[in-house]
Amino acid sequence: MASIMTNASALTALQSLSATNKSLEQTQARISTGYRVSQASDNAAYWSIATTMRSDNSALSTVQDALGLGASKVDAAYTGITNVLTTIGQIKTKVLSMVGQTDAAKAKTQTEIKALQTQMKSFADAATFSGSNFLAVTSKQVTSANDGVQPDSQIVSSFNRSSSGAVSIGTININVEGTKLFDYGLAAEVKNQGVLDRQTSIYSTGAAQTLYDNAYAGVIAGGGTDIAANTAGQTAAGAVTKVDNISAYNLDITAPGVTDGIITQMVTMMD
């Protein structure tokens, strides 16, 4: 029953105005957020999907940043290795030129070699980006003597979500133990030194050197320590003139016992 206080036209206008205002608020919300579904009340199912997609998109952006950071770390290592290889080539040339030369000439050249060795180490030490260095490291003992190794460096490379909603993350693993050139860990703790500071024996004949190198490499390939590899190599080479504890970083053509034959094998070691 209509009341004398009721104005039907006014009620209709009020309802229309209310609907218009609600529509205006919804439109303004869409404009301000850029989303047709910006909250659960708009459409619960679509809102849930959109929220997950926005979260995944943010994660993918993080992965992209991680890949960029990883690439910079690898670039730093690549530049360092390139410079080191160039320096090794220069050392090799100087060592080779000293076969048959006088002690005075060797002493002069050794001074130049020492400067190059220092430079070589500087290149490795400088290959650092965001606190990571794949060339110069410090390994520490874990549970027993000579078990210190470098763990792989992981770079996040992918983010995936399965149809069931399960999330998985992919990584690129860099074998730092295999790329290291110098390891500053204590000798009693480190399993294997770096490529350039690993001290081995140099023999006066190519045949003995080959026997030593093959036995040494076999032990290393089997997961053995530098100490075990050196022992196996010396056993295989037999009683042939040699000098011990030689590395690319510390080789000295003026050291006692270094003959022209050993200098020749030093060149082979740097190949």
How would you describe what is shown here?
- The protein has 271 residues and is α+β, with helices and mostly antiparallel strands.
- The protein has a domain at 199-271.
- Helix content is 54%, strand content 13%.
- It is built from 7 helices and 8 strands.
- Helix 2 (44-96) runs antiparallel to helix 3 and helix 2 (44-96) runs antiparallel to helix 7 (260-269).
- The N and C termini lie far apart (107 Å).
Integer-rounded radius of gyration: 34 Å
N-to-C SSE string, H for helix and E for strand = HHHEEEEEHEEHHEH
The 3D shape can be described as elongated
Q: Give me the secondary-structure category.
A: alpha+beta
Itemize the secondary structure elements and their pairings.
Blueprint lengths: L7 H26 L10 H53 L6 H24 L1 E2 L2 E2 L2 E2 L15 E9 L5 E8 L1 H4 L2 E2 L16 E4 L2 H16 L4 H12 L4 E5 L13 H10 L2
Helix pairs in contact: 2-3, 2-7, 5-6
Summary keywords:
elongated; single chain; 7 helices; 8 strands; alpha+beta; 271 residues
Question: How would you concisely characterize the structure shown here?
Answer:
This protein is of the alpha+beta class. It has 7 helices and 8 strands, in the order αααβββββαββααβα. It has a domain at 199-271.
